[in-house]
Amino acid sequence: MDPLVASASVIAASLAVGLAAIGPGIGQGNASGKAVEGIARQPEAEGKIRGTLLLTLAFMESLTIYGLVISLVLLFANPLA
Amino acid sequence: MLSLLHFDVLPLAELEVGRHFYWHLGGLQLHGQVFMTSWFVIGLLLIASVLATRNMQRVPQGLQNFMEYVFEFVRDIAKNQLGEKEYRPWLPFVGTLFLFIFVSNWSGALLPWHVIEIPEGELAAPTGDINTTVALALLTSLAYFYAGFKKRGLGYFAKYIEPTPILLPIAILEDFTKPLSLSFRLFGNILADELVVAVLVLLVPLFVPLPVMMLGLFTSAIQALVFATLAAAYIHEALEGHGDEGHEEHA
Question: What string of H, E and C letters represents the secondary structure of chain B?
């Protein structure tokens, strides 16, 4: 592989997963905070809130995973190589 | 140089990405290791269901009791998304998706596949291969198109222009992003779990990777749940149309 392409791919891979982690991080923090508020206000609804929270966290997590998929493609199956 | 990553420090701590045990069938190249593990998973599920239903008791015991619990769990996934009236015909599809993905994910995390040597590549969770997840996601697409056509005929296409025709491109794009996001989510999560565990095992072989392995078990279970839930939600959307969405959910 061309060293320029290789180094650019590595930098792009790290940027892809790092930048993709920002938004979902904020979103997951917001969601978890609201969920804790909800549980504190209404402790009897904890089971339902926790189930919904886990599902939504998985959805937000998947956004980072998309960035991770891009970086994995760049590292292991680079189309430019 | 970067196209293959291959560390071989300990006999149990190999890390191979992008290597496959190819089978050649006609002009096709098949990833043999994925077939072997998914046949194992399918066999496991078949044997478990046959054993649990062979000698059924009125008061369930042992395996039958467990499988009834599993069935009720899967039924609740379908019922929560599709509603009391519609869920029954789609229960086999949603349930099979959940069980296959769940058992695949956990087999990759729990079974010591690396003990079995194959000529190239390594045995791992079948869902850690993009081909498996794309196949499952395309099946889901087919399923919700079929559901929409069967319920509403050509009127199904009305949903593309329903609130306003301006949104037509986005409505069409949605049909492509749905399987894309479904497949990438599952593939990325499972492969990421395996990579994280493999890298940690490479650094510290004992005890330290255990919490991450537990986290991996947790996320892979959640991913199976998410895949099945989303498949059911897409089918529900196709059955109901955009107009009256969300009225009889959470029944």
Answer: CCCCEEEECCCCCEEEECCCCEEEECCEEEEHHHHHHHHHHHHHHHHHHHHHHHCCCCCCCHHHHHHHHHHHHHHHHHHHHHHHHHHHHHHHHHHHHHHHHHHHHHHHHHCCHHHCCCCCCCCCCHHHCHHHHHHHHHHHHHHHHHHHHHHHHHHHHHHHHCCCHHHHHHHHHHHHHHHHHHHHHHHHHHHHHHHHHHHHHHHCCCCCHHHHHHHHHHHHHHHHHHHHHHHHHHHHHHHHCCCCCCCCCCC
How do residues A17-68 score in pLDDT, each as one tens digit?
Answer: 999 999 999 999 999 999 999 999 999 998 889 888 888 888 888 888 889 8
Write the CATH number for A38: 1.20.20.10
Q: Is B5 on the interface with A (CB under 8 A)?
A: yes
Residue A31 lies in a domain: yes
- Asked if the Cβ–Cβ distance from B18 to A76 is below 8 Å, we say yes
Nearest CA in chain A to B180: A66
Question: With an 8 Å Cβ cutoff, are B222 and A58 in contact?
Answer: yes
Higher pLDDT among residues B18 and B10, named by residue: B18
Give which of A9, A28, A64, A68 to mutate to test B binding, by max B Cβ within 10 Å.
Answer: A68
Domain boundaries along the sequence of chain B: 5-240
Question: Does ipTM come in above 0.85?
Answer: no
Q: What is the pTM of this model?
A: 0.82
Structural domain count, chain A:
1
- Does the beta carbon of A26 lie under 8 angstroms from any beta carbon of chain B? no
